[in-house]
Amino acid sequence: MIDGVPPEVIAREATLWLNPGYAADADAWELPLDPHIAQARLARCAGLLAALFPELAASGGRLESPLVPIPHFQAALGQADSGTWLLKRDDALPVAGSVKARGGFHEVLAYVEDVAGKAGLLTDATDRRTLASPEVRALLAQHAAVVGSTGNLGLAIGLIGIGLGLRASVHMSADAKDWKKRRLREHGIEVAEHPGDYASAVAAGRAQAQADPRVHFVDDERSTDLFLGYATAASELQAQLRACGRTVGAAHPLCVYLPCGVGGAPGGILYGLKRVFGAHAHGFFAEPVASPCMLVQLAAGCERRVSVYDVGLDNRTEADGLAVGQASPLVAPLMARLLSGIFTVDDDTLLADAWRLEEREGVYVEPSAAAGLRGPLWLQQSLQGRAYLQRHGLERCMADATHVVWSTGGSLVPEAIRDGFRARGQALAERL
Ligand SMILES: Cc1ncc(COP(=O)(O)O)c(C=O)c1O
Predict the structure, then answer these.
(1) What's the confidence (pLDDT) of residue 410?
(2) Whose CA is nearest to atom 12 of ligand 1?
(3) Which of 9, 13, 218, 290 is the most exposed place for a label (fewest CB within 10 A)?
(4) Mutate to test the pocket of ligand 1, among 65, 98, 405 (most ligand atoms within 8 A of CB)
(5) CA dihedral angle for residue 283, residue 289, residue 294, residue 295, rounded to 10 degrees
(6) What is the spatial order of strands in the sheet that 254-259 belongs to?
(7) Per-residue pLDDT at 28
């Protein structure tokens, strides 16, 4: 048994856990990682990306997703008067269709810059469109990107990797969705399947890469390049909030709800938001009741790695992107002071909420991406949530709060698979 893990978590009951280590005044500026490095890389590679992917031509190669209000969904949960709820639609990110895109693209771009630089084909001043030249492509064809993934990171790494002319291979766990494996193979990306869970798929990818110096392993558990790529979403959100007139400050809290698997994507985004908004940004992660790996790790303390299996949970969930048993050892210690709390979600609620979101707002998301939707409810309606608001002096300003629910994937899900989730979600929504 692990001290600090609440009994509700062990009993697979949905709950909100407040992080006892959260320090509102923790200064993310003092932390060593700088998202501007990733922002600069993605900016200088925008022309290259626009040339490689027609989907990115309209944005000039910038990887961006819309921010939209969801008043009808809010009303469906009986929360019409509980502040402004916005959906950050990373499900609609071009090319890779998920929250993993910014990190995945950033890491592969960093790798190919390095390979081309070492071969004398690129300097700091060279236009990055050179990376699409026949000479560089011939060089990159001798190199590969390898990743272990529940699916969406594999799509991001595979698609940018193949687009740049690298070989790409993705190691996936047994419970990864078949349609994701099919899609990867259709694009010429090699898929290796493993009988174990996500962690064993990552370990297999790491082993493959160690054997060959021309293979780059994208380490979802430990990579700072991924993490910084994810963090670039913060300045994008800041610009979008400004553009729609939402103020963030002491009397205008920004509350953000992020689905969490291994923790890289939500951790990077929150890290970036803390650097931009400091104490005025309040970050909550959402995890499936069977896979609350970040909750278990933070509750246990970060001195030793623990997993959901250690508290008797089985890591089995429809939210395949979040089916991770052990949190990232890079991200968990960073979140120990920056993260406000974590709420858990059962699969029935995920499917029902995904259906409600589509019915009310016309937005289809995959089950993992629906995990954050109950965040504003937990914060404002639960005893723990109210205690948090009171502790941080927020009770009286919640009418002016901005709630950003991060939607993390869905646009690539085939229609037939969507129909299956829709039918189950509708039946559950009518019953719950
Ligand atoms: C749809 C979706 N949402 C959220 C996440 C969580 O990201 P992370 O595993 O970096 O915590 C993933 C991860 O693959 C995902 O596919």
Answers:
(1) 96
(2) 321
(3) 13
(4) 98
(5) 80
(6) 16-18, 341-345, 281-288, 254-259, 402-407, 84-89, 67-69
(7) 65
* Ligand 1 centroid to residue 112 C-alpha, Å: 24
Residue partners of 286: CB distance under 8 A and separation at least 6: 257, 258, 259, 260, 342, 343, 344, 345, 371, 372, 374, 375
- State the distance from the centre of ligand 1 to the C-alpha of 425, rounded, in angstroms: 21
* Residue 34 in tokens: 């700088």
Helices (H), 191-320: 198-210, 224-231, 233-243, 264-277, 293-300
At 402 the pLDDT is: 98
| Any ligand 1 atom below 6 A from CB of 136 | no
**Closest to 148 in 3D by CA, of 93, 89, 210:** 210
Of 417, 405, 325, 327, the closest CA to residue 369 belongs to 405
Low-confidence ranges of the chain (pLDDT < 70): 28-30
Tens of pLDDT, residues 68-99: 999 999 999 999 988 999 999 999 999 999 99
Identity of residue 115: V
How many A from CA of 6 to the centre of ligand 1? 24
Residue found under tokens 């927020």: 394
Q: Is 400 exposed, middle or buried (0-12, 13-18, 19+ CB in 10 A)?
A: middle
- C-alpha 35 to ligand 1 mean position (Å): 19
Contacts of 14 (CB under 8 A, 6+ apart): 8, 289, 343, 344, 345, 346, 349
Is 63 a pocket residue for ligand 1 (Cβ < 6 Å)?
no
- Segment (H or E) for 374: none
